[in-house]
Amino acid sequence: MDLLVVGSGFFGLTIAERAASAGKRVVVIDRRSHIGGNAYSEAEPETGIEVHRYGAHLFHTSNETVWEYVNRFTSFTSYQHKVYSHHDGVVYPLPVNLGTINQFFRAAYSPDEAKALIREQAGEFDVKTAQNFEEKGIALIGRPLFEAFFRDYTAKQWQTDPKQLSGDIVSRLPVRYTYDNRYFNDTHEGLPTDGYTAWLERMADHPNIEVRLDTDFFDASQPLNKDAIVGTVPVVYTGPVDRYFDYAEGELSWRTLDFEQEVVPVGDYQGTSVMNYPDAQYPYTRIHEFRHFHPERDYPKDKTVIMREFSRFASRDDEPYYPVNTPEDRERLLRYRALAEGEDRVLFGGRLGTYQYLDMHMAIGSALSMFNNKLEELL
Ligand code: UDP
């Protein structure tokens, strides 16, 4: 073995595939009984509908290197993601666009009129100087729209004072003064034609790659454990960085998700793939209906699969999904980064390993640069 990769999500598999193609022998271990991390998907047995087991994953990128790379393993459908929001008994298009604004204010504003209105409603806040989620949110869409679509959704999603959250989270969503309600701005977008798992399996399908599932890096009873391996062979670790150091600097806070999946005996439950529920009266943040991710497929006409999504703080035994990233977390992270620098031939990557809110294309892009800039010389 020339390299051990801990974790078989997109970051780990990209590293493994690159190293294997460069002639290195790679072992990938994963604690779970399937590859792919949270991008894993599977057919729901009763309907055959592809379900993203860890929540909806939408691929999009403007990075040409990443786009060229991912197309080696899968083709993509022409799916374009759109999200709607169910507020106060009415359904609005998201992200906030001229359609949302005009529907909300029951008006027919032109783009310039709408901009002037939002500027007035943003009050004292300015996008350039906004310090946190709340200030940036209000600066971007004004207080009434923020309160309708963001305040209570964010309370459910993060359970954290929006003044403690980063403004970067809110700027994940564009605001548009046109009727364009595509969720993403990127040049390339689509879903893997034959599903996420087929894509992930093709990345791992190389004679130099061995994948061992149900194998925990921290389990001393299996041979590829941390104490036995570190220092003897280069390691790329994509698990939670605080777990690696046995929480020596304290726990980083994460949000985890719970899902309630249901097969409903109707052909179409909500008419779209994702409906957000920003109002506090609903305990879930959104409902996914998976058939709408693949309108090109021949799915049953009388059944559909929906999944309600609930968010809460993760304890050590839960799957971490979203880094909360409060100022305290950021200080802890700096201390973990210093510890990580001191590890002998161990590189940390991915959403969990770097405690960053990475989308799939970002994880793949950062794995490609880690391979080219840091890892090649260690191998
Ligand atoms: N958000 C919100 N209302 C919505 C959608 C998003 O308040 O209807 C906020 C929320 O805080 C969320 C953030 O915007 O965490 C980013 O949204 P995105 O859809 O990118 O989140 P993801 O799909 O990654 O969970």
From TrEMBL:
<feature type="domain" description="UDP-galactopyranose mutase C-terminal">
    <location>
        <begin position="148"/>
        <end position="357"/>
    </location>
</feature>
<dbReference type="InterPro" id="IPR015899">
    <property type="entry name" value="UDP-GalPyranose_mutase_C"/>
</dbReference>
<dbReference type="Pfam" id="PF13450">
    <property type="entry name" value="NAD_binding_8"/>
</dbReference>
<keyword id="KW-0413">Isomerase</keyword>
<dbReference type="Pfam" id="PF03275">
    <property type="entry name" value="GLF"/>
</dbReference>
<comment type="similarity">
    <text>Belongs to the UDP-galactopyranose/dTDP-fucopyranose mutase family.</text>
</comment>
<keyword id="KW-0274">FAD</keyword>
<protein>
    <submittedName>
        <fullName>UDP-galactopyranose mutase</fullName>
        <ecNumber>5.4.99.9</ecNumber>
    </submittedName>
</protein>
<dbReference type="InterPro" id="IPR004379">
    <property type="entry name" value="UDP-GALP_mutase"/>
</dbReference>
<dbReference type="GO" id="GO:0008767">
    <property type="term" value="F:UDP-galactopyranose mutase activity"/>
</dbReference>
<keyword id="KW-0285">Flavoprotein</keyword>
